[in-house]
């Protein structure tokens, strides 16, 4: 009975004062749409930067005259170092193959080489790129007299491409902070915009609210229809935005995903999750906004 | 909720006046608005159950403040406001709606809900109290018949004349059969003929035992009805007569006194 009454009141308000409700609907639709585009982009971008960060690795080059046993022992030693996640042995011939691949069409120049100048190596993958110095120190410990030696005579050199790495690390963290700030701003702007529009729609009916209060309606009796109305408007706005997003995804984004790595990034947010998130946010913000903004006008 | 409602109408509500206390009592009440305007200044009076009282005086004399005080739209800075013997200044905010349900109010500007039909406007006053649909379907047509609105059931306020809108306002105020009915300038926007109709309606409600308080500056009406008159001036009660006229002295003398600049009738 009660719920039926409130629902009826909400629908009455929707049909009778359509203009402000429509404005709220449009605002929610557009902000949800913007968020719906922006969230996957941010997610994909962060995933990409993480991927770049994770490519950072250490390389331990092995003397050409090291024995098989020596290099095998070295592998065991490396794997025992903390923060080493994985090691990969790259033999001399494998290194040459990789170089050929990298050169692509120009790989012929490799054939002009007198032999195979490339050393065998261990590629070390770290659990976190930030731990690179720890691992480097472990590979080349400082002795009591201050001199530094590699942990094995088989080691010719340890390379970490320090410059590149620092650049990548600082660039990716800047990108991450920027994206986070941008996302926060956009979310805040969306909430404010929706809240403001709802305020206007409630404000347009403040006289009505006053009368209700003077006739003896409790605050919640007045408020429920507004909350339900907000719920409906928010859900509809969100749903239409999601529908548009879906159509856009199916017709524009999916066919292009072969060509653009960013779109195809596997770590971007799943569409189903995104849809649920957007719908829930649109509905909640709208309903809460309606209920909260009413507070001012209930002080009669 | 519904059960509660029927129990209330048996007499436990704040304005029920079971204990013989006056329905309305002001004890040395002062109201000061934000910005320092004084609404009432040390006003004291008591209105007994079943009385019909006029509040008279020029605009700004405190009539509206008196009424808003009873609805608890404003609170007294000093003094006590008692309704059926209870100090409503001490009422918690969430109890205010309950107080208002036991006071019917008629406004000068009708204050109808613009998007609702006549029927729905009156029904709303019952819906807020949680009455059943069945009860609403019985009571609303009754009160609309009483107020002569039976043919306007499905009209919205904009389709009605001022007099008709005021009748709807009266119907809404009385549909709960409140023990106290307050009208703030109910005829302020109406022509004399229509005003008589509204006043007759209020009088009819008074005859059912309801206490009626009417704020007005409709001199003709007050003089004709010869009821209790409480005259306010600059927030003070300057006259309180059992069955008085709008003006204490003959109108010409009062007017002459005011025109000559002297303040007469001040307490």
Helix % of chain A is: 55-70%
Quickly give the structural class of chain B.
alpha/beta
Number of helices of chain A: 11
Main sheet characteristics of chain A: 4 strands, antiparallel
Description:
- The complex is a heterodimer of chains A (300) and B (267).
- By secondary structure, chain A is of the alpha+beta class.
- Chain A folds into two domains: 180 residues, no CATH class; 104 residues, 2-Layer Sandwich (Alpha-Beta Plaits).
- Chain A has a four-stranded antiparallel β-sheet with strand order 2-3-1-4.
- In chain A, helix 1 crosses helix 9, helix 2 packs antiparallel against helix 7 and helix 2 crosses helix 11.
- Chain A is elongated and about 95 Å long.
- The longest helix of chain B has 16 residues.
- The N terminus of chain B is likely disordered.
- With 267 residues, chain B is of the alpha/beta class.
Distinctive features:
heterodimer, A: 300 residues, alpha+beta, Alpha-Beta Plaits, 2 domains, 4-stranded antiparallel beta sheet, 11 helices, elongated, B: 267 residues, alpha/beta, 6-stranded mixed beta sheet, 9 helices, 10 strands, 35% helix, globular, disordered N terminus
Helix/strand layout:
The complex is a heterodimer of chains A (300) and B (267).
Chain A: H1 2-16, H2 18-54, E1 57-62, H3 68-80, E2 84-90, H4 92-103, H5 108-111, E3 121-126, H6 132-139, E4 155-159, H7 162-203, H8 206-214, H9 219-256, H10 261-264, H11 271-297
Antiparallel strand pairs in A: 1-3, 1-4, 2-3
Chain B: H1 2-12, E1 24-32, E2 38-47, E3 52-56, H2 63-70, E4 78-83, E5 86-87, H3 96-101, E6 103-106, H4 118-127, H5 133-146, H6 162-174, E7 180-184, H7 192-207, E8 211-216, H8 219-225, E9 228-233, E10 236-241, H9 251-259
Parallel strand pairs in B: 3-8, 3-9, 6-7, 7-8
Antiparallel strand pairs in B: 1-2, 1-4, 4-5, 9-10
Helix pairs in contact in B: 4-5, 4-6, 5-6, 6-7
